[in-house]
Amino acid sequence: MNQMVHSAKTTPNDLEAAKETGRTNDPARTMAEILAVATHEFADKGLTGARIDEIAAATRTSKRMIYYYFGSKDGLYLAVLEEAYRRMRAIESDLHLDDLPPMEALQKLVTFTYDHHRDNEDFIRLVMNENIQRGDYLRQSKNIQSLNSNAIESVQSVYARGVVQGVFRPGLDPVDIHSAISAFTFFNVSNRHTFGLIFKDKASQGKAETLKREQVVELVLRFVSHSISA
Questions:
Q1: How far apart are CA 13 and CA 21, in angstroms?
Q2: What is the pLDDT of residues 62-87, one digit of tens each?
Q3: Taking the C-alpha atoms of 5, 7, 13 and 19 in order, what is their torsion angle to the nearest 10 degrees?
Q4: pTM, 2 dp
Q5: What sections of 167-209 are H helices per DSSP?
Q6: Cβ distance 190 to 124 under 8 Å?
């Protein structure tokens, strides 16, 4: 979490704000609830359109409490971005890819990423909104590089084992492999409405399925595989 966020300690201001909103004083829980609601608010309306008043009302807190914990609207937005990446990387770290053969490990990573993006459209919208901001806020994060370095390290480990075992072709950059996975799984969600309207047979009333999961897995495996012939 960014440095604007205060530690979860009890202060007289916390107690007063809690009394005003009728909440039990539980800073950690309050911060988690604020982040959850703010994630959807920022994803749905962007930084400019999101309203702190609405976040406060939905979490039964006050603007003063939100500003106490996160410093400002910008501070809350940055905390939301960091938390979104932190959650994804935390789940990735529990995949235990090093315990699997390289091909199976890569397939599991692609499947996880596909499912995560499909089931967490707010994450995709947050990333899209931050790209509209040209990454200006994420650039201020003190943690974003370390949060995402493990993702490349995981790909590097799986890929290196695959090259040694002769199942992956040499000469690829792990960042390029990560980019390929991100590109397919991100597009699947980010463009599903426009793509579905243009190509009506691809329209989905439920979760994003512009590209099928098995198609994405096959595309990435063919890209990395030592033998890419059909």
A1: 12
A2: 999 999 999 999 999 999 999 999 99
A3: 100
A4: 0.82
A5: 174-190, 192-198
A6: yes
